[in-house]
Design goal:
By secondary structure, the chain is of the alpha/beta class. About 40% of the residues lie in helices and about 25% in strands.
Length: about 230
């Protein structure tokens, strides 16, 4: 089966998966590609990895358009995603309303599951928040860092730690079996990121890529986007 190739931030993986059947019915095409830390995906596009469609943060996609790697006229907003906390489904959710609450929760965790702290949106933010809270050095040994949020959340689901917690994009938490969304980060520590989609300049299937963008962003998929953790 012919496929549209995607390079995407992990935040959009659940949404894309949820639209795969509708896209196949509409176009006859499947969906293939990679999902991961946005910085890694951008570098793959720069290194000429074949791609028809790119789904990354708004700021990063704008840079790629300026580098003539994405068609500017094709760029459309998919939705905003919060960085949030996650717990195993069998564990009680944590209530974090203030920076002090967050500091206490992270200090009490014996394992903290996060995505790449240099290349991923959520991972970079986690590193910043730990510095902001003044506990970066204290919890460094408890950080469990993985290439992307999806992998980090899968590892959290099977963690044998006594009091583990995770932090990544809400969409990645919602899409992972065995864990539960515990809530967004508190005021002063929050991060809401707009994700956008665009057609790669070297797309082999630009027509089908445009059709997938229409599905991702269409009004008739608003409920699915919200269930997957995207806000309008």
């Amino acid at each position: 089966m012919t496929t549209v190739n995607i390079l995407s931030g992990g935040a959009a993986q659940g949404l894309v998966r949820g639209l795969a059947e509708a896209f196949k019915a509409q176009t006859g095409f499947g969906i293939d590609g990679e999902f991961g830390a946005v910085g890694v995906m951008a570098d793959k596009l720069r290194a000429s990895t074949p791609a028809d469609l790119v789904i990354l943060t708004q700021a990063l996609l704008a840079k790629l358009a300026a580098e003539k790697l994405v068609a500017p006229s094709s760029i459309s907003d998919v939705g905003r995603v919060e960085t949030a906390l996650a717990v195993r489904s069998r564990d009680p959710k944590v209530t974090v309303k203030t920076e002090a609450d967050l500091r206490d929760v992270l200090r009490s965790a014996d394992a903290i599951y996060v995505p790449d702290t240099k290349a991923s949106t959520a991972g970079r933010h986690v590193a910043k928040v730990l510095d902001q809270l003044g506990i970066a050095y204290e919890v460094t040994s408890r950080l469990r860092i993985f290439p992307n949020g999806a992998t980090a959340m899968c590892e959290l689901a099977t963690s044998t730690a006594a009091r583990p917690i995770g932090c990544t994009q809400a969409t990645e938490i919602i899409a992972t079996d065995g864990i539960a969304l515990s809530g967004p980060l508190p005021p002063g520590c929050e991060l809401v990121t707009m994700y956008t989609a665009g057609i790669a300049a070297q797309a082999v299937h630009p027509k089908e890529a445009a059709a997938l963008i229409a599905l991702l962003t269409g009004a008739d998929q608003k409920d699915l986007r919200q269930r997957m953790g995207f806000a309008s």
